Amino acid sequence: MVASEQSLGTRFLLYPQSPSTPGYDKPELVWVSDPQGSILAGPANDRMYVVRPNTDKAPYNYPYLPPYNGGRYPPAEPSPDGHWDHIPPDSPAFLGVHVFGCVARVLDVWEGYLGNRINWHFASTYDRLEIIPLIEWDNAQSGYGMLEFGYKPTPDGRRDLYALNFDVIAHEIGHSILFSEIGLPRPGLPPGPDLFAYHEGVSDLCSLIAMLHFDTAMDRLLRRGSGNLMALNELNRVAELADERQIRIAGNARKLTEVGNEVHDRSRPFTGGIFDTLVETYHDLCVQRGLVDLPRGSIPDARDIDSDLSHTFASAFRADYDLKHFHLKSALADARDIVAMGLAASWHKLDSETLTYADAAFAVCDALQEQGQGEAAETAAECLAWREIITPYDTFSLGRTQSRSAQWF
Ligand SMILES: [Zn+2]
Predict the structure, then answer these.
(1) How far is CA 168 from CA 69, 116, 153, 212, 298, in A?
(2) 208 within 8 A of 298, measured Cβ to Cβ
(3) 255/272 Cα distance (integer angstroms)
(4) I want to staple 394 with a disulfide (CB 3.0 to 4.6 A). Which of 29, 73, 142, 358 is the partner?
(5) What's the 326 CA to ligand 1 centre distance in angstroms?
């Protein structure tokens, strides 16, 4: 094997959504950055390994913790040339390979945005993440040093395997990334009121943005509304119709005063505010690049989906759609990267012991501004204010002044 081949990385087959989702029944070929041949039987590398118990393993529950020491099936083997796309999806070994590939992919995506390696938050106890792809359990969990999966029984008697669900895997790795970047809450100290809701929201966003690195997902999202993502929000907000779970969650219209204290419910306004920022940034780029025939400033807000403008807007996207698809896809990739870079850089300004929603929102706006994305920063401030996460009266508590936060209004 020559060095140039190694540097291409390693091939996996990954499902961008659970294969029972319409349009997502085929896995996509994805390259992860591990050099070809470096992922050993398991699969296993220097940061994680897969174990397949052949006994009735109970879910981990303190004081029962990794590593798993019971009986196990033999490890899956790479192809002779060091790749992992040779294992058919209906083979029992595929599940563990799929989870491993999804975790590696999510880490690749977010390490790219952060510009640094993500070290596990449990590194002082375990040097590697243990992945258990299937146990007899109707749940999935990520805990200190481990990730393990069961299945959801379906009404027709099948099993929806969580190990085949990219969203479940990416969401759990989102929590790990956030623990690594903003720290663990200090034991014995009560966490801030917004920390766990923020965690849920950001984990959903980590998954959403990682999903937007799959061609299948980008193509389907764009073609469904002829490139008009407002149409996607519109349908979804009426009846949560989106096929992709990440869009069903993020394409919501909830404001902070409309949600309760349950962490998933309370996570929705922040997730929705960042998603609206992404949608509006994409629409702005489409106009700036002349991809839709609309004057600048005539774009309805992603928040006000009932606007009279939305019909004009939809037909401007539909015109010559087939000729514009790849240009629009490139604009969506750019909007995705702008927002993801702002979110990733915001974590350097936050600390899990003191985090508030308002701090987290201003940190995104400031990070975008510092990255030269002034328009996206203003869009984010408008979207997060509409969600009632920030107001002109908030102060940014991380040693900043009131005028610092007021600049966004
Ligand atoms: Zn979660």
Answers:
(1) 25, 24, 16, 15, 38
(2) no
(3) 9
(4) 358
(5) 33
Omega prior to 43 cis, within 30 of 0: yes
pLDDT for position 398: 44
Q: For the chain, list the domains and their CATH numbers.
A: 3-182 (3.10.170), 195-406 (no CATH)
CA 128 to ligand 1 center in whole angstroms: 21
Say if residue 109 is exposed, middle or buried (CB neighbours under 10 Å; 0-12, 13-18, 19+): buried
Give the number of other CB atoms < 10 A from CB of residue 144: 16
162, 146 in Cβ contact below 8 A? no
pLDDT confidence tier of residue 403, bands split at 50, 70 and 90: very low
CA–centroid distance, residue 170 to ligand 1 (Å)? 10
Gap from CA of 50 to ligand 1 centroid (Å): 21
Measured from the Cβ of residue 134, the count of other Cβ atoms closer than 10 Å reads 20
The band of 187, judged by pLDDT with boundaries at 50, 70 and 90, is confident
Q: Distances from the Cα of 195 to the Cαs of 91, 179, 261, 341, 406, in angstroms? A: 40, 11, 12, 21, 23
Q: How many angstroms separate the alpha carbon of residue 43 from the centre of ligand 1? A: 25
Tokens of 392: 């002109």
Res 81: pLDDT: 95
Q: Do 51 and 68 touch, CB atoms closer than 8 A?
A: yes
For the segment 245-289, what is each residue's pLDDT rounded down to a tens digit? 888 889 888 999 999 999 999 999 999 999 999 999 999 999 999
Choose among 208, 309, 328, 210: nearest CA to 267.
Answer: 208
Looking at the DSSP bridge assignments, the partners of residue 76 are: 42
Q: In this structure, what token pair is assigned to residue 307? A: 């606007």
Tell me how far the alpha carbon of residue 84 lies from the centroid of ligand 1, in angstroms.
28
Spell out which residues have Cβ within 5 A of ligand 1, the ion.
200, 203
Do residues 129 and 48 lie in contact, with contact meaning Cβ atoms separated by under 8 Å?
yes
